[in-house]
Write a structure and sequence with these properties.
alpha/beta, four-stranded mixed β-sheet, 8 strands, 17% helix, Glyas_Bleomycin-R_OHBP_Dase
């Protein structure tokens, strides 16, 4: 089994579309104003966004995108006007992460974990 796509809600699909294009995703389905789908620049995963009247309450959505050159990516995205709520930093779970919010308040975590993404030292043996 492989994760194909994740779909998230948005109150303003046009604004969300521009945000994710700036982030580097490739728009592959444009059914504005109700639905869009993006392809990630690496791998086969896609991200869909659909128009809603209200956003989920409480924790919302967190989306992780991995990049081997995290610090350079963050610098590039800042130069395009994206605002980060945390700069790249090494986490105790052996990932390096930077956080920002999309226009609907969904948390976007850009990170680099390398081998620790699926094989941290505390992984349960098969």
């Amino acid at each position: 089994m492989n994760l194909n796509q994740v779909t998230i809600p948005s109150l303003d699909l046009e604004k969300a579309t521009e945000f994710y294009k700036t982030l580097g995703l490739q728009l592959i389905v444009d059914a504005l104003p109700r639905y869009v789908r993006f392809e990630c620049p690496d791998g086969d995963s896609t991200l869909s966004i659909h128009l809603v009247e209200t956003l989920p309450k409480d924790n919302g959505v967190s989306i992780y995108f991995e990049d081997d050159n995290l610090d350079a990516l963050v610098t590039q995205l800042k130069s395009k006007g994206l605002v980060f709520i945390s700069a790249p930093e090494d986490k105790r779970w052996l990932w390096r992460e930077a956080h920002l919010l999309d226009p609907d308040g969904n948390t976007i975590i850009l990170y680099h974990a390398g081998k620790n993404r699926k094989n941290p030292p505390w992984r349960i043996p098969k």
